[in-house]
C-alpha cells in the first residue's frame, strides 16, 4: 500500500504544471494519430484502467526509486504532457517521472503513468529524442495495449476483466485474480515486453504525435540508431531488453516516415534547452 501512496504523491504534483506546447506544422499529423486509436471507454472502464495502471506503477516503484532531481522531473512532465495533449486520450491525466536507474529504458502503464530511466535521458542529445521516447510510451497508453491484452473492463463476468468488481470484493479468489493480473502485466513490462506489432504501432503513433506537437519525428530514428551502436556495451547488459530488435524498428520507422511524409519534415529538436537539464 505504501508504494501506491508514494506513486500518487510523487506524480500528482505534476498536475499544477503547464505543459510546453510547440507549434505544429501540419494538423494532419494529429488527425492521423487520432485515427489510429479507437477509444470506446465507459466511465467504469476508465476507472478500472487507472486503478490497474496505478497498481502496476506501484510495483515498478517497488523495484526502482524515483530520481532525486525535481527540476528534471518537472521538465520531463512539460515535454510529456505536451505530447499527451495531442494524443487521443483526453479522458485521462498523464503523469511522468524519472527512475534512478542507469540502464536505458522506459515504461508505461494503463491510466497514464509513464516512467523513464535516468540512463535513457543521459543517452539523449536533445529534447526531440526525449519527446520520441515519451511519445512511444504515450502511444502504448493511447492504443490501450495492456488494456486489450488483459481485457481490463470496469464491469465484466470474467474474473480478471471485472477489475472494479475485484477491487470491491472481499473474497480471497478475487484478490488472487487481481494480483495475478497485475503480476502478469508487470512481467510483460519489465521482462517479456509488448507484442512486436504493438511496439511498431506505438512507434508509428509516436512519430505522428511528435510532428503534431512540433518535434522533429525523425529524432526517434536517430536515437534508435545511436542506441543500436551502443547495444553491445556492458552498461546496458544488466537489464533485459523489452523491445523488438532495434534494426527492425529502425527499418519500419523509415518506411513509416516515408509513407506519412515525415522523412523530410523540418521541425526543431530543442538541443539548447535540453542541455540545461541534461544528465552529465
Can you tell me the number of structural domains? Answer: 1
| Alpha carbon gyration radius | 18 Å
Number of strands: 3
Number of helices: 13
Q: Could you say which overall geometry the principal axes of the C-alpha atoms support?
A: globular
| pLDDT < 50 runs, ≥5 residues | 13-26
Give the termini separation. 35 Å
- Share of helix, binned: 55-70%
- Decide which structural class fits the backbone: mainly alpha
Name the average pLDDT: 82
Share in β-strands: 5-15%
Instruction: Spell out the helices and strands N to C.
Output: HHHHEEEHHHHHHHHH
Q: Order of strands across the biggest sheet?
A: 1-3-2
Largest sheet: 3 strands, mixed
Give a nutshell description of this structure:
The chain contains 13 helices and three strands. It has helices at residues 2-12, 27-35, 43-63, 70-85, 118-122, 127-142, 145-149, 163-168, 172-192, 196-213, 219-229, 246-259, 271-277, and strands at 95-99, 106-109, 113-117. The longest helix has 21 residues, at 43-63.
Structural commentary:
The protein is mostly helical. The chain has one domain (2-14, 25-274). It has 13 helices and three strands. The protein has a three-stranded mixed β-sheet with strand order 1-3-2. Helix 1 crosses helix 3, helix 2 runs antiparallel to helix 10 (196-213) and helix 6 packs across helix 11.
Topology:
Blueprint: H1 2-12, H2 27-35, H3 43-63, H4 70-85, E1 95-99, E2 106-109, E3 113-117, H5 118-122, H6 127-142, H7 145-149, H8 163-168, H9 172-192, H10 196-213, H11 219-229, H12 246-259, H13 271-277
Parallel strand pairs: 1-3
Antiparallel strand pairs: 2-3
Helix pairs in contact: 1-3, 2-10, 3-9, 4-6, 6-10, 6-11, 10-12, 11-12
